Fold this sequence. Notes:
The structure is a single chain. The chain is mainly alpha-helical. It has a single domain (3-101), classed as Transferase(Phosphotransferase), domain 1 (Orthogonal Bundle). Helices cover 53% and strands 0% of the residues. The protein has seven helices and no strands. The protein has helices spanning 3-6, 13-30, 43-49, 53-60, 71-80, 91-96, 98-101. Helix 2 runs antiparallel to helix 5 (71-80). The longest helix is centred in the N-terminal third of the chain and has 18 residues, at 13-30.
Amino acid sequence: MAPEQHLRRPYRGEKSDIFALGVILFEMMSSHPPFNAATPKDQFYIALASKRFDAFWRKHSENKSPSFYSESFRDLFQRMMELDPNKRISMYQILEHPWTKETIAPS
């Protein structure tokens, strides 16, 4: 659930959906969620909300290769997790983002 929904503020569905899509995208890449809940009690959510991205990525990159999360993936995810829904990336911007244009090498 997007932070604006947790705070019981008026919200726009498409912006809340972008937040949810970011969580799903992270889970698809990592096989685990980025945080337990979008609340001030979750250390990973706090790191994202306060834009302490280095701490967030350092913890999530443990036991992974240094290049597991590409810079373009990190940028896209961080923009999807933007606390302020008015600043959160739009669906059009997601589709035009460099990460969505990257060629994925077969594993």
